[in-house]
C-alpha cells in the first residue's frame, strides 16, 4: 500500500491519501470513525450497489442519487441537506463520499456547507477521482450547463483509494480517467509522461496502477500544498481544462455527453496546439502529445457539428475569466507548464477549430 501525505501548510491542513488493494474493509484503521456522532455515506446508485457492502461501517446513514454528471446540481445538494437534517446530523458528524468525480465534488460541497461545514473523507472509485477530484480541496456543482460554477475550497480529512474498485468500471470510464494522469506528466514531469504513455491502460498491473496513482497524487499534492486557492502555481492544473470545460459543457446538450476526462483530452490537444502555434513548443512535441493521447484510447476531436463560435461563447463564461479575458495555462515543453498567458484571440479560435 502507498501512503501520500498532503500538507497545506498555510492552512494547517495535513491529511493522508491511502492507495492500495483490498483496503476498503480497513477504513476503520485509517480514520477514527468512532469519534464522530454519526457517519453519513453519500454515493451514487451504481457505486453503492457495487461497493457499499465492502465498507466496514456498521451504522451509517446512506444518501444515494442517480449516477452521472446530470445529477451534479443544486437540486441534488438540496436533497442531501434535507436527508442529513432529517437524520439529525450535527456538526460532529462525518460524511463519507464514495464514488467518482461527481460524488467527490458534490459530496465535498455538501460537507463544506451543511451546518457551515462538517468533516468528510473521500473514497474514490474511479481513476479520475483517485488522481484528481478526491483531494486538493475543490468542491462544487454545475449551474445549468456551466461547469463547477458553485463551489468551495475545503480539504477532506483523509482519502482512501482502493484500486479493486476499478475492476468494475466500464472500459470507456476507466480510460477517460487517465487524461488527468497524462496532464500531470505534461505540466510537471516529462519522464512520468513517457513512462505512462508507453503502455495502454489495460496493460498496467495492479502494482503499476498503485504507483501511477500515487505519483499523480504526489505531483498534484506538491502543487496544491504551495497554492491551495489557485492564486498562482495551482493554475498549472488547469491545462486542458479551459477548452475542455467549454466542450464538455457543450456536450451536455447532446444525447451522448462526453466524460470529463474525454473533454480534458480534447482540451489538451487544443491547448497544446495553441502552445505550438505560439512557438512555445515545437511541432514535433505537439505531434508526440497528440499521438500519445490518441494511442491511449482518448478522443482528440469533438466531431459533433459544434461551431467555433459556440465554444468561444462558453469560454466567455469560464470562471477563470477576468474582465472578459482568460489567463491560459499552456506548455513550454513536455513536462513544463506555464500559466497566466494571454495572446490574440485568433490563436484561441484556431486551437478550437483544430479539434472540431
Features:
Dehydroquinate synthase-like, alpha domain; single chain; 2 domains; Rossmann fold; 14 helices; three-stranded mixed beta sheet
Quick summary:
The protein has 14 helices and eleven strands.
Describe the structure.
GO terms for molecular function: 3-dehydroquinate synthase activity; metal ion binding; nucleotide binding. It is an enzyme of class 4 (lyase). Residues 177-321 form the 3-dehydroquinate synthase C-terminal domain. Keywords: Cobalt, Lyase, Metal-binding, NAD, Nucleotide-binding, Zinc. The protein has two domains: 2-169, Rossmann fold (3-Layer(aba) Sandwich), CATH 3.40.50; 181-355, Dehydroquinate synthase-like, alpha domain, CATH 1.20.1090. The relative contact order is 0.12. The protein is of the alpha/beta class and 356 residues long. It has helices at residues 27-30, 45-51, 74-86, 101-113, 127-133, 171-176, 178-188, 190-197, 206-226, 241-251, 260-277, 283-295, 308-315, 345-355, and strands spanning 2-8, 13-20, 39-44, 61-65, 94-99, 119-124, 138-143, 146-153, 159-162, 328-333, 336-341. The strands form four sheets. A four-stranded parallel sheet has the order 4-3-5-6, sandwiched between helices. It contains 14 helices and eleven strands. A hairpin with a 2-residue loop joins β10 and β11. The protein is 42% helix and 19% strand.
